Amino acid sequence: MAGVGWSGVGRIGRRQAGRVWPWVVLLVLGALGGTLFYGYTRPQAVPPWARGWLPNPPGQTRPLYRWRDAQGRTQITDQPPKDRPYEEVRYRADANVMPARGEQ
Questions:
Q1: 62 and 45 share a domain?
Q2: Separation between Cα atoms, residue 65 and residue 59, nearest integer Å
């Protein structure tokens, strides 16, 4: 009987050690997800070098660039031109939303 008890303890110890890795993975993924959620909801707290990696939160937009091409036509793009003067244009995220009836 004494030998059975010792072998049972060894098996339990190995089984518990094998179940630690899924919890570690879940903990790391949860911490990463929490960090990304915090950066998404509080973009001013994210360092400037990391802001380009995160999606834009609702209500915030990236700048657009207005410039004129060689034919004099106005162009609006999401990347500034390299060889022409341009104007940075900011706009509200709800700029194309019609007001509700009665709010006019």
A1: no
A2: 19
Q: pLDDT for 26-68, tens place per residue?
A: 999 999 998 888 877 777 777 778 777 766 666 667 788 999 9
Question: What single-letter amino acid sits at 15?
Answer: R
| CA atoms within a 13 Å half-sphere pointing along the CA-CB vector of 41 | 5
The amino acid at 56:
N
pLDDT at 27: 93
Strand arrangement, sheet containing 87-89: 74-77, 64-68, 87-89
Domain that holds residue 83: 58-104
Same domain, yes or no: 36 and 72: no
- Same domain as 84, residue 47: no
